[in-house]
Design brief:
single chain; alpha+beta; Jelly Rolls; 4-stranded antiparallel beta sheet; 8 strands
Amino acid sequence: MKFLNILNSLYDEEILCKLGFLKGIRLFEGIKKRQLIHVLESLQERTYLKGETIFTQGDIGRALFIVFDGKIALTRIDQATQKSEIIAEVHPGEFFGEMALLEEMPRTATAYALEDTKVFMLFKIKLESLLFARPTIGVTIAAQLAKIMSARLRAMIEKPQGE
């Protein structure tokens, strides 16, 4: 019985750790901590080994990825040189692949693990389920997604030429 209590305690600590992590993700701003359990239930966890490809440029996107631990490289093929260039690194607490939550279109980059990396994946179908089952949560995520994508688009537009 004591072993079972220890096991439950560790499980609870792990869940609380994940909920605390999710609370700090910009995508989930405005969602109460007690509501985050529903978000956590909608996420799928996966660990990628160093060098493992998460998705390839041109693949159809169906999920957003949140880095829990580790580091991801995003690369794109330069059309002129046909060489792969790193366009960004994604660290714990950051996410990528968010366009897949809006439409299932080809990925604009390749993502691979720079080191062993644990991610949470939010699939488009899970977000749609949240929108119907927990509208407050789903609408909050959708609104945050719109703000984040608007800010990223604005940053691209305002970026000086030649950078």
